Amino acid sequence: MLILAIDTALEACSAALHDTGADTTLAVLREPMVRGHAEALIPMVARLLDEAGLSISDIDAFAVTVGPGSFTGLRVGISAARAFGLATGKPVIGLSTLAVLAAPLLARDDSVPVAAAIDARHGNVYLQVIGAAGRVLVSPRAMPVRDAARSVANGPVRLVGSGAPLIADAWPSGERAPIVLLGDLTPDPVWLARLAGVADPARSEARPLYLREADAKPQTGGRIARR
């Protein structure tokens, strides 16, 4: 299955073309960015397809990270993936940003659980814990850093993601220290494609996974009177 995977959930814009049958990556592009995903994504996909010598109709399925992450970034990636799916009639598969962060570690060794954490700011993190055979031990959620540390400090664990150092700093005294792995802080689109290759599209909808309300809210007070 040839999958086009795109990620705009965090501080990067990424895309990959991956053949899951042969486990071969045809092309991959990743650009760090805090904003500007909407302007960068479509040209990136066009370059990716051109590099691989393919057209959008050659793709068998589309994969996208659905969150947690930036509200604007998530909308960009999910809207693009849905549009591609609608235009081609191919399935669109949505996967947790946290699961994609944990995937490469679990693929190398799933004997020790992985706690993927993203800094959600203001003393909070987005957290998901996955163990052997992909079993979800803690489902994706937003929680205070100290609560997150207590929830995972019950045995050997590996921490990954931008929230990993925060959890390690809040680790309960007397508990076995975690293994903090400061690898990729944004999802690898190749691993997104690999996970999508074994996912059930019917159970992996491309809908935003919002774990908290947006920081920016519309004004609720009255308008300033005009003179």
Task: Characterize the structure shown.
By secondary structure, the chain is α/β, with parallel strands linked by helices. Helix content is 31%, strand content 29%. It contains six helices and ten strands. It has helices at 37-52, 71-88, 97-108, 145-152, 164-169, 189-198; strands spanning 2-7, 12-19, 24-32, 61-67, 92-96, 114-121, 124-130, 136-144, 158-160, 179-181. The strands form two sheets. The protein has a five-stranded mixed β-sheet with strand order 3-2-1-4-5, sandwiched between helices. Strands 8-7-6-9-10 form a five-stranded mixed β-sheet. Helix 1 (37-52) crosses helix 2 (71-88). The longest helix is centred in the middle third of the chain and has 18 residues, at 71-88. The chain is globular. The N and C termini lie far apart (63 Å).
Q: Tell me, rounded to a whole number, the average pLDDT.
A: 92
Label the structural class.
alpha/beta
Poorly predicted segments: none
Report the span from N to C terminus.
Answer: 63 Å
Q: Regarding quaternary structure, how should these chains be classified?
A: single chain
Give the SSE order as H and E letters.
EEEHEHEHEEEHEHEH
What is the topology, as strand order, of the major beta sheet?
A: 3-2-1-4-5
Name the features.
single chain, 227 residues, alpha/beta, five-stranded mixed beta sheet, 6 helices
List the helices and strands and how they pair.
Layout (H helix, E strand, L loop, with lengths): L1 E6 L4 E8 L4 E9 L4 H16 L8 E7 L3 H18 L3 E5 H12 L5 E8 L2 E7 L5 E9 H8 L5 E3 L3 H6 L9 E3 L7 H10 L29
Parallel strand pairs: 1-4, 4-5, 6-9, 9-10
Antiparallel strand pairs: 1-2, 2-3, 6-7, 7-8
Helix pairs in contact: 1-2, 3-6
